[in-house]
Amino acid sequence: MNAPVKIETTLKDWETDQEVRWCPGCGDYAILKAVQRTLPQLGCDPANTCFISGIGCSSRFPYYMESYGFHTIHGRAPAVATGVKLANPDLDVWLVTGDGDGLSIGGNHMMHVLRRNVNMQIMLFNNEIYGLTKGQASPTSRIGTTSPSTPIGSVDRPANPCSFALGAGARFIGRGFDVSKNLPEVLKAAHAHQGAAFIEIFQNCIVYNKDVFEEFAAPKGAGDRQLWLEHGKPMLFGDPKTGFDKGIGLDRDNLALTVVDATEENWEDAGVLVHDATNRSVAHMLIEMPFGPFPMALGVIYDDPRPTFESGVAEEREKATAGKEANLAKLLGTGQTWTVDANEGHPTD
Amino acid sequence: MATQAADNSSANDQSPQPEAVVVRFAGDSGDGMQLTGGQFTLSTALAGNDLATFPDFPAEIRAPQGTLFGVSAFQINFGSRQINTAGDAPDVLVAMNPAALKVNLSSLKPGGLIIADTGEFTKRNLDKAKYDQSPLDDDSLAKWDVLAFDISALTIEAVKPFGLGNKDALRSKNMWTLGLALWMFDRPRGPVQDWLKQKFRSKPEIADANIAALNAGHAYGETAEISGPLKQLSIPAVESEPGLYRTITGAEAVSLGLVAGAQLAELPMFFGGYPITPASAILHHLARLKQFNVTTFQAEDEIAAICAAIGASYAGSLGITSSSGPGIALKGEAMGLAIMTELPLVIVNSQRGGPSTGLPTKTEQSDLYQAVFGRNGDAPMPVVSACSPGDAFEVAIEACRIAVEYMTPVMLLTDGYIANAAEPWKVPDPDTFEPFPAKFLEEKNGPDDNLLPYKRDGKGARPWIKPGTPDLMHRIGGIEKAQDTGHIDYDPENHQAMTDARVNKVLGVSVPDQTIAAGEAGGKLAVVGWGSTYGPIHQAVNRSRVKGLDVSHIHVRHIWPLPANLGDLLKSYDKVLVPEMNTGQFKTILRDQFLVDAQPLTKTSGQPFTIAELEQAIEGALS
Q: What are the backbone dihedrals phi and psi of residue B391, each rounded to the nearest 5 degrees, phi first?
């Protein structure tokens, strides 16, 4: 892949002339703005940027980005994006999907784009509901979610998108939420990561699943409920006004995370873990920390790059074609051949 | 050991040097019959005969030994005249075990020759084949000549010097049999010996053992004092046009045609596939041709295979995907996306028996409705069909041309028979192919410095715009597009106009006028076929014409849109008969499109039509 040329743009340059058709107050607006704010900071070139989506509210996203965009079919965006990247690895591809699109109908493709490690940013807007089809329970809906298809509450256990991604072999896992001021930082880290970068973005569906993330996303008390992870920094949290007062430690007997009292001064003695984004085991524990007893892990949870699928395909091509010429006439005449002589009309060898 | 048949009036005796012979090798699926047949085919092609083959094997990789359903067969028809089919009834049946005899006996020509390995006619194998007693010992085979001897023992004897165990030694049985067959038809052994040395180059002792078995079988024919059925026949070479020839299967021809098509379009090729019988061979062939700017991608499923191909086309490659009926069904929604976004794409369907999993290794033409109509919404798509392995090469190029020139997905129909069958192929000269270079939009194409991604050219095609092109950023997708701008548009008049535009673009695809394969315009009967029924229909019509019947053969390559003159041509005959390996799908299309009284002749046994069946139907239609 060639080093991308940095281009100067502003937020306005990334807006299209299309009327945005999400419900007023939808979390998608905030995510759109966060992306439009982030891309100029990264020096991205609209002509070299391509947003690819499936079906659902989130998947309307490409229409509102002044770049190349492909609104595909339900669940299949990872497969389309894989074809795009193999045909032109230099394109900067962003995949936009949701909990239904990416984990239900498209779960299979999500697994494979992650395990293959195709170089792109994958934003999964998780609102724990089917919005565009009017509010049915989704694969991330919590047990007991009442919806038109589950009138007395859903009974199936929800999937955890980041656990799924980690299990599928993702080498980058980030988490944020729609209105978070830190979301651009997560997007930047994902963009810097070479390979499939999976970002779960909690998104408030104000019509069908209003405020389900309020417990940790609400500004009030956010410090106690959000653990923003930074590589190399201790996992501390707490009210920013009064200073961090808690941290994440390791219960070594049970191999489990634990919340310990700690401050910026005594965290080492208190046994607070330092976030190592390349530690897959701890990433798994952070992703699965039950919210309530623990805060919600946010930011860059895991970031440990491996060679991309495209680079593997390119290397394979180099090996396979070394010393071979692309001569069509020769190719057609390969194999067990014989010549029929002009004079006799019979084979001569 | 030879068992002399009571009735000695074999076909061979009546005509010592026939123009064409049909041989069927049949054995257990582990006996290597496909390899034997393949090698016999090569030797026969090198001897200058025209030929056609029909591999017929079970879906199981290693079906239980000796069972009736585990029988694998390979039939070859070769001769000194033009050969169009693999032959109706074999003249010679090589039966490596009782099950192979039982399954294949009914098709053997009366008076034909059976070569059987007595070493395999054990109580156990007879039981598995549901024989109460050995057919070699009673008079149930009286209609045929029988040559039965212990091929197993002779093979073990032949490979003894190489110190192989009995099990390994018996693996060379097929080469022993091939040696005998090569002697019978006066074919050279050299190419097979070369092939064995190459195949087993890391295990020279195995190569030597197989060559010894091959030579022993050949020597057996030469020296064995057998009177009666076993005679050497020489089938002279066919008169062919001068030039370079090779044997080719349909799967190879499709692969090469697609490579040629992408080169003529001056595009990199992206091939997305998922393993499925009988289409996988195309993926395998193309995976070895990366030097032709080919990328092959084995996707996680059929849907991903086509979606990745669509993504690649969007990014400026020629996207291609391939499958068989069940996989094509899974790709349906994505085909609609390619139709809506008007991107070039070639979809190859190697049809097999259906519905559902159906008969994976048997042939059928029952995906015609699926190809023409099988998508949600009004989703028009050009459909072309191949009639033989060699023809598949040209049709694959044609599919690429239509896709690129009209910005549309195109379906290429072949079938299991074409995919696996081999025939001699005159190697074409690529310099004679007409290039159709793809064009990409480089600058804005509308008034007032606007970009119009859905502005159509004279052919109704929209411009192809590669992501990465400066200043041409735009969005496409599966939602209905506004004319010209391509913006989302639910307006009723716009949907009407866009539906019409898509339909008319496909109906406007330039298709050559329909020609007549045999006979003339007008008359009592036209036999109309498409796809792999070409061979048997052509032979049956020609034979009927020799008998003085007023019948012509029309073979349709372009299924959608149909040639403009086809309707008038069909109306010039009193009767129209449409033989198909389905329940009458093309017949329905012809009736619908032209209001002609097309009559069906259908067959869905998983086996190709025989010439005799078609001759009978022609006589019936004319009586």
A: -65, -30
Q: What's the CA gap between B202 and B210, in Å, rounded?
A: 14
SS3 of B488, please? strand
Select from A244, A300, A298 the least CA-distant residue to A272: A244
Chain B hits for A84, CB-CB cut-off 8 Å, are: 311-312, 314-315, 467
In tens, the pLDDT along A140-196 reads 999 999 999 999 999 999 999 999 999 999 999 999 999 999 999 999 999 999 999
Rounded to an integer, what distance in angstroms lies between the CA atom of residue A44 and that of residue A42? 5
Quick count: other Cβ atoms within 10 Å of Cβ B233?
15
pLDDT in the model for residue B233: 79
Q: What is the pLDDT of residues B19-45, one digit of tens each?
A: 899 999 999 988 899 999 999 998 888
In which element (H, E) is residue A229 found?
strand A226-229
Cβ–Cβ < 8 Å for B555, B534? yes
pLDDT above 80 (res B467): yes
Handedness of CA A147, A149, A151, A157 (dihedral sign): negative
Q: Report which of A138, A14, A28 is spatially closest to residue A74, judged by C-alpha positions.
A: A138
Report the residue from B46, B299, B315 with minimal CB separation from A88.
B315
Cα gap A349→B11, rounded to integer Å: 31
Say whether residue B291 is in contact with chain A using an 8 A CB cutoff. Answer: yes
In angstroms, the CA B368 to CA B390 distance is 21
Closest-CA residue to A238 (of A226, A224, A219): A224
- Closest-CA residue of B relative to A44 is B468
Q: What is the ipTM for the molecules in this complex?
A: 0.97
Order of all β-strands in the sheet with B345-351:
B294-298, B269-273, B318-323, B345-351, B409-415, B383-385, B558-560
Q: Is residue A107's pLDDT more than 90?
A: yes
* Chain B residues lying within 8 Å of A46, measured CB to CB: 473
Taking CA–CA distances from A85, the nearest residue in chain B reads B312
pLDDT of amino acid B228: 60
Residues of B in contact with A328 (CB under 8 A): 259-260, 263, 292, 430
Nearest by CB to B246, from A16, A79, A336: name it: A336
What's residue B168's pLDDT?
87
Q: Phi and psi (nearest 5°) for B312?
A: -65, -40
pLDDT for the residue A251:
96
Comparing CB atoms, the residue among A82, A316, A349 nearest residue B311 is A82
- pLDDT tens, residue by residue, B318-331: 999 999 999 999 99
Identify the closest residue of chain A to B80 by CA–CA distance: A346
pLDDT(B409) > 80: yes
Hey, which residues 548-577 in chain B have their CB within 8 Å of chain A?
A: none
